[in-house]
Design goal:
The chain has 92 residues and is an alpha+beta fold. The chain contains 3 helices and 4 strands. The longest helix has 18 residues.
Length: 92
């Protein structure tokens, strides 16, 4: 799976890591719904760190279609709300 972190670039991530990312995504969704800004910040950073840690960065000149687009680390709660689907940021 190709994941884009807005403002950073793309990462190739194995499907075996989707469950870990979904757990963080579920936590992020709960924090957004409750308006927990501190929890939202912490979990968004944890989600992005997991993608960076588990994935392999693609070269800057690679133009692969992204299957998943994640917000930039400094995205606001409102900006991330606009990106959400019914499943959160990560479908499934």
């Amino acid at each position: 799976m190709i994941v884009r972190i807005m403002g950073e670039g793309q990462v190739r991530l194995g499907d075996e890591h989707v469950a870990e990312l979904n757990a963080l995504d579920d936590e992020l969704l709960e924090e957004m719904e409750s308006g927990d800004e501190a929890g939202f910040r912490r979990t968004l950073e944890a989600l992005l760190d997991a993608v960076r840690r588990l994935g392999s960065p693609l070269p800057d000149d690679a133009l692969e279609p992204s299957e998943l687009i994640l917000p930039a680390p400094d995205a606001t709660l409102d900006e991330v709300r606009e990106m959400l689907s019914d499943d959160g940021l990560i479908p499934g």
